[in-house]
Design brief:
The chain is extended, with a radius of gyration of 18 Å. About 45% of the residues lie in helices and about 5% in strands. Strands 1-2 form a two-stranded parallel ribbon. By secondary structure, the protein is mainly α. It has 4 helices and 2 strands; from the N terminus they run E-H-H-E-H-H.
Length: about 120
Amino acid sequence: SVSVLLVGTFLADVIEEKGNLQVIDKSLRELTKGSFAQIVVPGGVEIGELIYFPIDNKESLSNKESLEIDHLRRAVEQCARGDQSVLQEVSVRWMAFLDSILSEKQNKKPYLTFS
């Protein structure tokens, strides 16, 4: 089964009112109740026991936000290591496509053309 990670963005806007994170968490739990056993719950989140990763992607990274993103990154890596599909062989065409995406990213172009 595929792992699902839920990420909430714009954390700075959400935490302006106390309890907003818990309200969002409650809504997510109700919406996913019994349907998504593969949701990866963040371990060690300091703001309660949430089922999603609250991330601030709006402000420049402070030490706390970089820890939140690092926590998300580790969860993604852990899921990828445990997923058997990462052991599948990949066509050389897809590898070339990935190379073109990465080279364009280095050139600061936000898109690819297929011509």
